[in-house]
Amino acid sequence: MSEIILNPKVQPQVPLEAQNVTPDMFAGKSIDEIKNIEIWFGNEQVSLSEFFDVEGESADNASEIKIIIDGDVDNTKRIGQGMTAGEIVIKGNTSMYVGSEMEGGKITVEGDAGPWAGRDMKGGELTIMGDAGDYIGSSYRGDWRGMSGGVLTVYGNAGNEIAEYMLGGKLVVKGNVRIMPGVHMNGGTLIIGGDVIARTGGEMKGGTIVVKGIIDEFLPGFEFLGVEKDIEIDGELLEGNYFKFKGDNATKGAGGIIYAATKGNAHIAP
Amino acid sequence: MQKIIKNGMIYDPLNNIDGEKMDICIDNGKIVDSVANDAEVIDASGKIVMAGGVDPHTHIAGAKVNVGRMYRPEDSKRDVMARGGGMRAGSGFSVPSTFMTGYRYAQMGYTTAMEAAMPPLLARHTHEEFHDMPIIDHAAFPLFGNNWFIMKYLKEGDLDKTAAYSAWLLRATKGYAIKIVNPAGTEAWAWGGNVHGINDPVPYFDVTGADIIKGLAEVNEMLGLPHAIHLHCNDLGHPGNYETTIASFDIPKNIVPKPKYGHRDKILYATHVQFHCYGGTNWRDFVSAAPKVADYVNKSDHIVIDIGQVTLDETTTMTADGPMEYDLHSLNGLKWANCDVEMETGSGVVPFIYAARAPVPASQWGVGMELFLEIKDPRKICLTTDSPNAGPFTRYPRVMAWLMSNKYRMNLIENELHKWAQTKTTVATLDREYSLYEIAQVTRATSAKVLGLSDTKGHLGVGADADIAVYDINPETQDLSAEYMAVEKAFSNAAYVLKDGEIVVLDGTMVKPDLYGRTYWINTKYKPEVEQEVLVDVEKWFRQYYSVNFENYPVQEDYIPRSVPLLGDSVPGEASGKEPAIEGASK
Ligand SMILES: [Zn+2]
């Protein structure tokens, strides 16, 4: 694996949009050429080297490239957007849309990520060690076709409306989430390790949501199917007792499944 | 500045010119007999020349179009243009933003386009969008077919009052034609229902679709409007609806056209007929009835239709046919916007995916093509996609290429379309190919004439506005049936487009994007004493029911930057003697 290290200089107040920072874009280019790859700075295009020191060694194929962003890029959006192969490691925080539309390869954010991480993700692995914002693993605003593949994992907490219109793949949040996880979900798997404020799976038609923590407010459109012990989801065994629901019957053709841990959720059982 | 377009092959059906090499002279925005020797020369050798395209039915401005833009950011994302070359930034594949709409029409060589459904109450919004829509001349058709005043006066059998109100409404909205959408049906939708066929009475007013069509067709000629009544029939999209369609076509056939402006010789303009040609009783036993409807049109002289060709895209449907949009939403489950426009009309908006591999869209594609190919006289046809309902207007070049190439169609039928295109329609058996002359007919000539604008639009004769498209197509050296992709590309990116004599597009690129078009509207009054009586009713219902004051309702002429009122005292083109300078008219 060839490593290319991007050292962030100062993060400007106007956001950078770095959809060109992918192994696919870097492949076959020399380090000097990579320095001149254009990124958006507000509404103008500038060279990557204006905001990043670039060093290391490139390769011909994206799959042989590992991009290391060595520090916080709090105000840089779209890193790894649409990437198909290779690896990106961000050794700090990043802004919106990290790994959106990604099709393959691997991204690791060691800090926090902003909203829309993994939006419309089709494949690959996106791992966020810290917290993530709203709409991670969701569809583009307005669209009814969302994340369809790959694995998105958040070790911290996440925001509102995650996995919105999810179609496939797997989204795991180890911590807590805010309202409406899995809203309009049509497929795939969403596993929440912590608590949910409200409205899990609103208008979901398909897919599976597991909540290991407490759901403060549950929706009335779900049919109670019983209690299951030690459930198996995507080949993974989740131990403990779970209430099983099917819904959301507020919408036509409802066939989504929610498992909620029995512990702490007595208030949502019938 | 004088110009001369030299050596082009001219296709000008309104003047019976079929591919002759002729020069076109331009002076002061008009086509003239001759120009001085030092006139600017545009070399069109090896290229074809047509009048600027005239789109008689599209949805480009107003409230429902804007709902489409607002609630479909995922559509905006599919076609994005950055600012540059004097052009504004824009976005939208099926519902482009206003500036981009003007640019996209112009790039295809279209210079006139008609907004086909304007809720009267939202006329101001519609005109505001025209302010920001460069290049194209335009007009808007207010919706009459479910209007309470119209239904009240028709119920009372008072055609005089219907005519007086109609004239007032056209003036108040700065509208151009009488648009009728699912007559009685949209009002029934306000009660949670719909009507079925033309003889089903609307709640309360107790008039039928047939009454409304007949009454308004008579009113149209009492007023002598340039355009015919513009009818979107009942039962849109339902298997078995062709009987309603033919019965609707038959209603006004004995009325005599009496336009006071223009040369229209038809009494009825029926729109997006493709959606109204379905046989069977449900989507399982559905079969195309396009041959039956085509046969009716072939035998009739009182009607012009536009097709509403499905283009096999993901698009946005939008219509005043509120109950139809609800049906569509129930069918595809996609997001639905619905609006009740007080005492006038309603509307709905739903995204739709016409997937080539799906049985119904493949059949609908076939039905549209059957109409194009089975109706013998292209003087009865306008090429439309009911943009964006059956597909966006940016696909017109593709439709033209389909019409000109049986090979293109057969490739699609055999390799991409669901087999229903072959089993439910006869399209695969039709090998007719349109000539360039026929293309010019269905994209400019028929539409200009039926709109009543053929003095200045849709042709290249002396006196016409110098709205001209030059396309990089050479019928002498190219086999247009075989080279269908080249044809599609050439019609998508005109070599030159002139608007009012100015070059606005060069090699498919906008070079003069800050020119703004005319707004045509009808400035007529029908029997002032009857209008006085009508206005008493109007003001009363405004006080009782409307959410706006009567005084705030009419769109004042000052609101129209390049106002061209027709039928009134003022001379067309010299509206109120103060037509503003063309350039930057919107500023
Ligand atoms: Zn329409």
Ions, cofactors, ligands: which are bound? Answer: zinc ion
Please report which band the strand proportion of chain B falls in: under 5%, 5-15%, 15-25%, 25-35%, 35-45% or over 45%. 15-25%
* Residue windows where pLDDT falls under 50 for at least 5 positions of chain A: none
Q: Terminal Cα separation of chain A, in Å?
A: 55 Å
Q: What coarse outline of chain A follows from CA principal-axis ratios?
A: elongated
- Low-confidence stretches of chain B are 570-587
The secondary structure category of chain B is: alpha/beta
Biggest β-sheet description of chain A: 13 strands, mixed
Q: How would you describe the shape of chain B?
A: globular
Which two chains touch over the largest interface? Answer: A-B, 8 and 9 residues
Number of helices of chain B: 18
> How helical, in percent, are the residues of chain B?
25-40%
**CA(first)-CA(last) distance of chain B:** 24 Å
User: What value does the average pLDDT of chain B take?
Assistant: 95
Structural class of chain A: mainly beta
The largest sheet of chain B, given as strand count, sense and whether it forms a barrel, is: 9 strands, mixed
- Cα radius of gyration of chain B in angstroms: 22 Å
Strand content of chain A: 35-45%
Describe this entry's structure for a reader.
The complex is a heterodimer of chains A (270) and B (587). By secondary structure, chain A is mainly beta. Chain A has one domain (2-204). In chain A, 3% of the residues lie in helices and 36% in strands. Chain A has helices at 23-26, 31-35; strands at residues 2-8, 16-17, 38-41, 44-47, 52-56, 65-69, 76-77, 87-90, 106-109, 125-128, 151-154, 170-173, 186-192, 196-198, 206-211, 215-217, 223-233, 236-247, 256-261. In chain A, a hairpin with an 8-residue loop joins strand 18 and strand 19. The longest helix of chain A has 5 residues, at 31-35. The mean pLDDT of chain A is 97. Chain B is built from 18 helices and 26 strands. In chain B, strands 1, 2, 3, 4, 5, 21, 22, 23 and 24 form a nine-stranded mixed sheet that branches. Chain B has a five-stranded parallel sheet with strand order 11-12-13-16-20. In chain B, strands 6-9-10 form a three-stranded parallel sheet. In chain B, a hairpin with a 7-residue loop joins strand 14 (278-279) and strand 15. Classes of the chains: A mainly beta (270), B alpha/beta (587). The complex binds zinc ion. Zinc ion (ZN) binds at residues 57, 59, 116-117, 271-272, 319, 386, 389 of chain B. Zinc ion is lined by residues 57, 59, 116-117, 271-272, 319, 386, 389 of chain B.
